[in-house]
Design goal:
Layout: E1 13-14, H1 15-22, H2 26-35, E2 42-43, E3 49-51, H3 53-68, H4 73-114
Antiparallel strand pairs: 1-3, 2-3
Length: 115
C-alpha cells in the first residue's frame, strides 16, 4: 500500500464516513460542530452534512487534542484559538508518522514472509 493512497479523491464526505474515519459517533461530530466554529460542513437541501477535506483536517486536530491527548473541550478551543497553525502542524506530523509506521509494519510482514 503506497504512503499517499488517494486520500483526496472525494470533494465531500458524508457524516457517517467522517465518523468512521475517526472512530466516533455522528452525534459527537454534530456536538463538536457546535463547540468548534471552525467546523462548518456544507449542508445540502435536506440538511445533509457534506464535509470537505478542510473540515476533516479541523476534526483531525480536535480529535487529536480531545480523544488522543485527553484535553477538555475548553482547553482544546483555547489552544486552537491561540495557535491553530502549530496544532495543525503537530497533527500533520503525527499523522505522517503513523502512516510511515503502518508502511514499515507492512514491509516487515512482507519480509518475514520471504524468510
Amino acid at each position: 500500500m503506497p504512503l499517499n493512497s488517494n486520500k483526496n479523491l472525494k470533494k465531500y464526505y458524508a457524516i457517517g464516513e467522517v465518523a468512521e474515519m475517526f472512530g466516533v459517533t455522528e452525534t459527537l461530530l454534530r456536538y463538536w460542530e457546535k463547540e468548534f466554529p471552525s467546523i462548518q460542513p456544507r449542508k445540502s437541501g435536506r440538511n445533509v452534512r457534506q464535509y470537505t477535506q478542510e473540515d476533516i483536517e479541523e476534526i483531525r486536530i480536535i480529535h487529536n487534542m480531545v480523544k488522543v491527548r485527553g484535553m477538555k473541550l475548553a482547553a482544546a478551543r483555547s489552544a486552537i484559538a491561540k495557535n491553530h497553525s502549530k496544532e495543525n502542524s503537530t497533527t500533520e506530523l503525527i499523522n505522517l508518522l503513523q502512516d510511515i509506521r503502518s508502511e514499515l509494519v507492512s514491509i516487515k510482514k512482507e519480509l518475514e514472509g520471504i524468510v
